[in-house]
Amino acid sequence: MPLMTPVAASPSSLHLLEHVFGYTAFRGEQAAIVEHVAAGGDALVLMPTGGGKSLCFQIPALMRTGTAVVVSPLIALMQDQVSALREAGVAAAYLNSSQAADESAAVERDLVAGRLDLLYVAPERLLTARLLATLDRLHEAGRIALFAIDEAHCVSQWGHDFRPEYLQLSVLSERFPAVPRIALTATADPETREEIARRLALGDARRFVSSFDRPNIRYRMVDKDNPRAQLLAFIRDDHAGEAGIVYCLSRRKVEETAAWLGEQGIRALPYHAGMAQETRAAHQSRFLREDGIVMVATIAFGMGIDKPDVRFVAHLDLPRSIEGYYQETGRAGRDGLAAQAWMAWGAQDVVQQRRMIDESEGADEFKWRARARLDALVGLVETTGCRRQFLLAHFGEAGEACGNCDNCLEPPRTWDATDAARRALSGVFRTGQRFGAGHVIDVLRGELTDKVRDWKHDQVSTFGIGADLDEKTWRTLFRQLVARGLLAVDHDRHSALTLTDLARPLLRGEAEFALRLAPEKRRAKRSRSTRLDIPDGVPLTLFDRLRAWRAATARERNVPAYVIFHDATLREIALARPATLAELAGISGIGDRKLDAYGADILAEIAREV
After folding, report:
1. Which CATH number fits domain 534-607: 1.10.150.80, 3.40.50.150, 3.40.50.1820, 2.30.130.10?
2. In whole angstroms, what is the distance from residue 130 CA to residue 283 CA?
3. CA torsion through residues 10, 12, 18, 21, sign
4. Can you give the residue ranges of the Helicase C-terminal domain (predicted)?
5. CATH number of 217-409
């Protein structure tokens, strides 16, 4: 990635950072972005989830004259951000469809009267004639501070989060050319970045691309072998009682998995687009406001979810792309504490995804892009190298081996399966490319089954040439030949295997094939969870009591617990055990307003420590 000259933060931005938001220093590109936008510049910002994107427009909003208008795609996201800003003493509000007419009217009066620092709106609300007319009047009076377009990847028609309303946001540059605009996203490959810039008329905007690295996330991928049981063991062993998200491909699987986890004693809730809106909203609210809820969901859930203490994201099905995977797993560990991205996958997932692409009604270009993105994801799950290094390379960023993913911690065993792979491909060819893996394996192993005799496959040249390998090894080999695209599955002919063009180099002796062997059966080491990050000798009871106090306070104020304080802040308090308000003020995440509102209560909890 190109190196950028560090930008010194101005005294005014540092003052706001410390006294409003409770932090003593900017991270990464934050200072440069803040100063650029505060000075009136346009910006396109790519920053990973948890990297502090919101501060990049919230602080300039407070530095500039007037109200900042923030375009946000989700009601839950704007409500949570407004609640957090109000807790910090910032005058913020939102306009969305969840409000009654009198509530919306009150917000609009505050906007016109200049009583708001930030106003959050959905794109469809922003584009109404009524609100645009109001903004026109404010613009004429010089009272619009900036426009921030959050989750800007929603403009991309290639992504699953596409929102057609975002395509109309180019009107902001036409209607308010003198007002700075900042577009922000956590996930965008180079192609999507260009699409964002083009569709939002940000071609001349300065681009800030932060590192995509999330070093606090441990990436783990396992072969499917009773995936429900594997998921349950993962949650119980590594994340008992902690918040997490489990992604499934279908609505039916979401509901079945959530119900099954509930039967096993896990506090799990389902979420998908086919549920009633009231039920979805209730489940999302519980996930955001309660500790330890596991949300089982389709990709309909998650965009913009601002919950910082999600300790794991699990996939029971293969995502559609690396971009989707990165975005979904990025919802874990937003507070910077240890988190995990866990996935159970199998070759059938790849077959199913390819079938969905082939049978979709999309144009040929769409299908081509979808296949390419799926192939890149298969490369990630099949790699024997560092997962994080592979992810970063996909986004154009170099990186060292992380030492924290499954492949780094327990390097996978590999086997030069070139000869066996050629035999497998020959077996498919010699049996007419009309049978599934089971029958071809019987032929290779020389099994005289009724089916082999009926088709006279005991007389083909490949009969018995694979007797040296057991059935499990052959099945693993066929699974990976399918996953890597050398064999295709013909669903119209009872899942018959057929050779693809990618098989030709291997059959001609021009390529090799390394097989990733399944790991040896052994009990996995327990991962370091949030609580285990507290050093030995520090009483966990204080951390627990602070979390209980936070939960009770959040209920009283009708806000999510993390709006009061993040786990990372409570952890730092538990470690430092400040005795005075001055000492408490030095804890990251405690600004002036929160110190005044909660300082005495926190010191009282600390003083109760025995």
Report:
1. 1.10.150.80
2. 33
3. negative
4. 227-378
5. 3.40.50.300
User: Phi first, then psi: what are they for 457, rounded to 5°?
Assistant: -80, 0
Region(s) of the chain under CATH 3.40.50.300: 11-209, 217-409
What is the phi/psi pair of residue 95, to 5°? -125, 115
Length of the chain: 610
What would the two tokens of residue 41 be? 């510049």
Alpha-carbon span 473 to 515, nearest angstrom: 10
User: Do 92 and 85 contact (CB within 8 A), yes or no?
Assistant: yes
Instruction: Give me the DSSP letters along 344-364.
Output: EE-HHHHHHHHHHHHHS---H
Encode pLDDT of 167-200 as tens digits. Answer: 889 889 999 999 999 999 887 677 788 888 999 9
> Does the pTM exceed 0.90?
no
Task: Give the integer Cα–Cα distance in Å for 88 and 82.
Answer: 10
CATH topology of domain 11-209: Rossmann fold (3.40.50)
Over the Cα atoms of the chain, what is R_g?
Answer: 27
Question: Please, what's the b/e burial string for 554-563 (b: 16 or more CB within 10 A of its CB; e: otherwise)?
Answer: beeeebbbbb
Distance in angstroms between the alpha carbons of the first and the last residue of the chain = 51
Tens digits of residue pLDDT in 227-263: 999 999 999 999 999 999 999 989 999 999 999 999 9
Instruction: Report the C-alpha gap between 168 and 155 in whole angstroms.
Output: 9
